[in-house]
Amino acid sequence: MRDDDERETSWQSIYLLTAIGMFCGIQFSIFFPTLWPFLNTVDPTASASFFGFITAAFSVGQGLASPGFPEKQRRWVMMVARFFIGVGAGTIGVMRAYAATASSLKDRARAITFIQASYVIGMTFGPDSYTAMPTFDTISVAVCVLTQFTLMFIITNLETIGSLYAKMMWGWTNAQAVEYTGILQAVNGLVGVLVYALFAVKLGDYISQARERIFTIFGLALGVLYHVVTFPYPWGKDLHFELRNVTVHGKNETEELGCNPDKYRWCHYTKDVNFWIYASMYGVVLAACFPIVNISMNTLFSKILGARRQGTMQGIMLMAGSFARTVGPILVSWIFQEWGPEPIWGIEIFTLSVTAIFWIIFYRRMTPLNSNPKLNPYEYFHYAKGVLYRI
Questions:
Q1: What is 137-162 written as a DSSP string?
Q2: pTM above 0.70?
Q3: Domain shared by 296 and 192, yes or no
Q4: pLDDT beneath 50, residues of the chain
């Protein structure tokens, strides 16, 4: 039998034990920092002193056993489980002994170092509270949800009163209202498709380079511009009203053209808006507003949430839009009936402005979720559960 100086070290087995030791270290580094929060979750009545017993007994695995035990008994299950894990932890001593016998004298220090270092390396992994997906910023998410509500609120309002507004503002017949508003919608849709095409070709990549916030604010500003320019200011002309005989399906009928002051008292004081100004703002400015905000905001929203399952939050986003589409028509039709388009335009200007202001106030927070920041020496990064330093 060769002595220790003559035989060669079994490095394959040493490397295997090194890997096992590292995983043992990972296990312990994960268990210890998370034991108390976990215990406090499954059994809020457990005291800190009892937690000391659990730690001493090397108890873990309670997460698997707890569903089968009453809450009052979970602490004991956790302690027993920790005891068996403690028995398993005896492998560290066995691995050190094996390293001593499997290595030559000249390699003994190196072999023992591998085993010792493997455990320490495993401990450095720890519970992944740093590189694990951190909590997203709730304020940023709330601003995006508010933006979705605002968009759907504006769209629904314009859809609700569109034809009625056109008839009263410019004295169109029912047939003219259908035809001309259809043309306006077609132009609006074509411009919208063009904007979406630009996003699909080049603009999308340009915005994705941390420019979502700027484009969202710009899009909201376009919405404000549309409402400011098309607002029925006092210096406009009085709204026209007349009764005209028209032929509908071969029958002569009397149709109201314009704004009837007997039905709507606001017809007495509300002024008109130039059609060509309105058409250009609706067909171009407002048409560009919605796709710009929609794409920019939703792109950033997905980045704020991070690389996690987003079904719930996307559902909340859609729910905000659905709520706007539910409340908007009821509110707007009532306001239009009682007070006309002026307060509606005012509400929409206010809503768009407040939304844009929130984007400006929280501009620095409206950023993608950073789960793995690049740090220079002596810099640090705050996570929800700790601070990451670079020495």
A1: -HHHHHHHHHHHHHHHHHHHHHHHHH
A2: no
A3: yes
A4: 1-5, 36, 48-49, 52, 55-56, 58-70, 123-124, 129-130, 385
CA–CA separation, 11 vs 162, rounded Å? Answer: 80
Q: At what angle do helices 212-229 and 341-361 cross, to 10 degrees?
A: 160
Measured N-to-C along each axis, helices 91-102 and 105-125 cross at an angle, to the nearest 10 degrees, of 150
Residue 94: its H or E element: helix 91-102
What H or E segment, with its residue span, contains residue 57?
none
Which residues have CB under 8 Å from 76's CB, separation 6+?
Answer: none
Look at residue 203 and tell me if it is in a domain. Answer: yes
Structural element, H or E, at residue 346:
helix 341-361
Answer for the pair 181, 166: CB distance below 8 angstroms, yes or no.
yes
Distance CA 59, CA 127 (A): 17
Burial (CB count <10 Å: 0-12, 13-18, 19+), residue 347:
middle
Q: Are 241 and 256 in contact (CB under 8 A)?
A: yes
Residues 310 and 334 in one domain: yes
The CA distances from residue 355 to 40, 156, 217, 322, 348, in Å, are 40, 17, 9, 18, 11
| Residue 192 pLDDT | 84
Task: Note the pLDDT tens digit of each residue in 193-241.
Answer: 888 888 777 776 777 677 888 999 999 999 999 999 999 999 888 888 8
Pair of tokens at residue 228? 């400011």
In a domain, residue 259? The reply is: no
Phi-psi region of 137 (alpha: psi -120 to 50; beta: other; left: phi over 0): beta
Do 301 and 217 belong together in one domain? yes
Amino acid at 201: V
What's the domain count of the chain?
A: 2
Which token pair is 16?
């295997």
Give the position of tokens 């507004």. 165
Contacts of 179 (CB under 8 A, 6+ apart): none
Give the domain range for residue 30. Answer: 11-125
Dist. CA 96–CA 108, nearest whole Å: 11
Helix, strand, coil percentages (3-state) for the chain, rounded to 5, are: 70, 5, 25
25 lies in the same domain as 98 = yes
Q: What is the pLDDT of residues 53-78, one digit of tens each?
A: 554 454 334 334 334 444 555 566 55
Residue 1 domain flag: no
Contact 107, 15 (CB under 8 A): no
